[in-house]
Specification:
CATH superfamily: Glycoside hydrolase 144 (GH144)
Number of strands: 17
Protein name: DUF3131 domain-containing protein
Pfam family, one: DUF3131
Shape: globular
CATH topology: Glycosyltransferase
CATH architecture: Alpha/alpha barrel
Organism: Photobacterium aquae
Strand order of the largest sheet: 3-4-5
Number of domains: 1
Radius of gyration: 21 Å
Number of helices: 13
Order of helices and strands: HHEHHEEHHEEHEEHHEEEEEEHHEEEEHH
InterPro entries: DUF3131
Structural class: alpha+beta
Strand content: 5-15%
Oligomer: single chain
Length: 459
């Protein structure tokens, strides 16, 4: 067993800026191009509450009342750890907006925590990539019993939302901690601080470096909340800079010929970082959302937004790009701002391009609308605000090429709409409290310390 706390506190949670030592010269133009960002804040209008109710309808339709889990896709009974995070955010919004009572919230959250404390773990002691919402058992993507392996990225996202759950509902903190203390963090973060996923085939485990620029930096915050420092995952290097429409954009510098990694730049991690952390360092407790203590990620997010706005201004193409499902092959694509040396390309997991599948994403449009108060985001919201079935929820989006609806309906999109509106009502969603928790007691105990590469609490 090794300790991940190999760097001093001064180099970890309270000083995320250390991540960017040695790269500042290369991103000077990105930082200088940062715009003054004004988001949308305040109580929801009746129209906005109705948008939220439509999104919650998806959750109501797709909840298994026995397991308490919610389908990742409409009427398809599987879920992964990132989807579980989406559901927990949706549950926060439903309680905030009084779509459910305190009792129903308690029942729903209790079922989720019961699942987390009892769910079968894989060979290496971490959550499987996919579970059945009907049985709570490990399955593959075809919903057949199987152990697939794990995703440190999905688990990092879940850790962030579990932290937000504890902050909002501290009476459940003990049960969250007990669930997470079951996991073997040795398999999620290496000794030198890289995020690793794994696949399992016929009982054999294959580990691989997971993540790309943007999503690594975002999901690292989930591990930081647990006092695990994924130092290398938080570093921008290796990165490169491309200029599109006069705007500099950072992208992952790893050569795909030598690394088995797809490197698209897309909106999602930067939007989540904005709504959940306000592009601040993890320990920032200021109430103002107008300034950002993680200047680099804030500037990168502004570049991602400004490029999409610039495409409308120069080419008159509405653009709100994220990853999404499609109703036919390849079933899932990344609508990239930049990938494979090409701007505005849509790529599947195998690297094939599918530009005809590009959407104006409903979820991305809502989230950009709350994070950037501009005429362009007003236009985007007007374009997507009718993309729903009132009895099923929000569609994935509108095709860039034809204006047609992509009528697939997912938890990610509907929870994403709810998260955007929750951010509008509350401001940034991660609010560190600093109170002593169940896990701190375990960390301090010489007899019951959980090990599993979890560190001692900071002194």
């Amino acid at each position: 067993m090794h300790s991940l706390l190999s760097v001093a506190l001064a180099l970890s949670v309270s000083a995320c800026g250390v991540v960017y030592n040695g790269v500042q010269d290369g991103i000077t133009t990105v930082n200088e191009s940062q715009i003054f960002r004004q988001g949308r804040y305040g109580g929801l209008s009746e129209q906005e509450l109705e948008w939220a109710r439509i999104a919650w309808k998806y959750v109501e339709n797709n909840t298994n009342l026995t397991t308490g889990l919610v389908n990742a896709l409409d009427n398809y009974p599987t879920i992964n750890m990132s989807n579980l995070a989406d559901y927990l955010v949706a549950l926060m919004a439903a309680r905030e907006f009084e779509f459910i009572t305190s009792k129903e919230h308690d029942e729903r959250l209790t079922l989720v925590l019961g699942f987390l404390n009892e769910m079968p773990l894989g060979l290496t002691g971490v959550p499987n990539k996919v579970y059945s919402t009907n049985t709570s058992q490990m399955v593959n993507y075809a919903n057949q019993p199987a152990e697939l392996g794990w995703s440190s990225i999905d688990i990092g996202r879940l850790l962030i939302v579990l932290a937000m759950t504890k902050q909002r509902y501290p009476e459940f903190s003990e049960y969250v901690d007990k669930a997470v203390l079951r996991w073997n963090f040795c398999e999620l973060v290496t000794q030198d601080g890289e995020l690793y996923g794994g696949t399992v085939h016929e009982g054999q485990v294959h580990r691989y470096k997971e993540g790309r620029l943007g999503i690594e930096e975002y999901t690292s915050y989930g591990y930081l909340d647990w006092h695990v420092v994924p130092q290398k995952a938080m570093m921008l290097e290796p990165y490169e800079v491309v200029t599109i429409n006069g705007i500099d954009l950072l992208f992952d510098g790893r050569d795909p010929r030598h690394y088995d990694v797809l490197r698209p730049v897309y909106s999602t991690p930067y939007l989540l970082m904005g709504m959940e952390f306000n592009w601040d360092n993890i320990d920032d407790t200021r109430s103002s959302d107008a300034e950002h203590t993680n200047h680099t990620l804030s500037a990168m997010a502004d570049s991602v937004y400004r490029l999409q706005q610039s495409r409308w201004e120069q080419d008159r193409i509405y653009t709100a790009r994220g990853e999404h499902v499609v109703s036919g092959p390849p079933y899932f694509v990344y609508d990239s701002i930049y990938a494979l040396g090409t701007p505005w390309i849509s790529v599947a997991e195998d690297g094939s391009d599918h530009d005809e599948k590009a959407l104006v994403s409903t979820r991305v449009a809502f989230q950009m609308w709350v994070l950037w108060k501009t005429d362009y985001t007003d236009k985007l919201l007007t374009l997507v605000q009718e993309l729903y079935d009132p009895e099923r929820g929000w569609y994935e989006g509108r095709y860039e090429l034809t204006s047609s609806y992509e009528k697939s309906i997912s938890l990610q999109t509907n929870a994403g709409v709810l998260q955007a509106l929750l951010y509008k009502a509350n401001g940034k969603l991660y609010q560190p409290k600093g109170s002593r928790e169940y896990r701190d007691v375990q960390f301090d105990s010489r007899f019951y310390h959980p090990g599993k590469c979890l560190v001692e609490t900071f002194r």
